[in-house]
From TrEMBL:
This is Phosphosulfolactate synthase. Coiled coil: none annotated. Pfam families: ComA. Transmembrane segments: none annotated. InterPro entries: Aldolase_TIM (IPR013785), ComA_synth (IPR003830), ComA_synth_sf (IPR036112). It comes from the Bacteria. Belongs to the phosphosulfolactate synthase family.
């Protein structure tokens, strides 16, 4: 029975308020146990880095996620490896065989020009749902704020369903500096000109997650969430942790 007044959460098949976990090779049996209890808290599962290519029983894992209505896709590093070796066609055919319906187009490791990414998206969006990523995995690669805005909006206009802001699983690149501190000026500038409901902010740690929850609200889209942290994250979203205790109904507030 619900008796507390808590911030409301989007439910069912969400279009925003997403929790996107990162799966770095969770064994099937362990994953089954986790999803039995927590599947309703997970919307998307990224098979991190290139793990999908070498994971045993990959079809079984994809089916397990589908059975729990969780969208699974391969991390952008695998896309970039295929791009580097001119194997995009083979990659897409492989995804179709696996019944994976989502594709990430990124340039976190390779410097793939925006116009080339847009061209690729225009082709693959005919058969797949596309997620794009903006930002470099190189923590010393400083991208101007105007370029962040330009790329995010261009990718969304090209037909991407969501755009991810790079943060790495360590939270030390992209929207974070190499010490793990969030670039708050960048985030607040983005919120002025970008539809936050279409952006998935990579936030690998509770500290990062709480920043976005307090800044944008309970229904911010968060990615690179550790599979073991999904309940902790939902607790934070509902104002049931000290750092989000006074969370109210809101959709992005002024800088903290």
């Amino acid at each position: 029975m619900d008796f507390l007044q808590l911030p409301s959460r989007t439910k069912g098949t969400r279009s925003f308020g997403l929790t996107s976990i990162v799966d770095f090779g969770t064994p099937i049996g362990h994953l089954q146990h986790i999803l039995e209890d927590y599947h309703q808290l997970i919307d998307i599962a990224k098979l991190g880095i290139g793990t999908a290519y070498v994971f045993p029983n990959l079809k079984e894992k994809i089916k397990l996620y589908r059975d729990y209505n969780i969208k699974a896709y391969c991390g952008g590093t695998l896309f970039e490896k295929c791009y580097q070796q001119n194997k995009i066609t083979e990659y897409l055919n492989w995804l179709k065989e696996l019944n994976i319906e989502w594709v990430e187009v990124s340039n976190g490791t390779l410097n793939i020009p925006l116009h080339e990414r847009l061209q690729i998206i225009s082709i693959i969006k005919q058969d797949f749902h596309v997620i794009a990523e903006v930002g470099s995995k190189d923590s010393f690669n400083e991208m101007p704020i105007c370029d962040w805005k330009t790329e995010i909006n261009a990718l969304l206009d090209a037909g991407c369903e969501y755009v991810i802001t790079e943060g790495r699983d360590s939270g030390t690149a992209g929207i974070y500096d190499n010490n793990g501190t969030i670039k708050s000026e960048l985030i607040f500038e983005l919120l002025e000109d970008v539809d936050w409901k279409k952006v998935i902010f990579e936030a690998p740690s509770p500290k990062h997650q709480m920043f976005f929850i307090n800044c944008i609200g309970s229904n911010v889209n968060l990615g690179n969430v550790k599979i073991s942290d999904v309940l902790i994250l939902e607790t934070q979203r509902r104002g049931l942790r000290s750092e989000t205790f006074n969370l109210e109904e809101q959709e992005w507030i002024l800088p903290l």
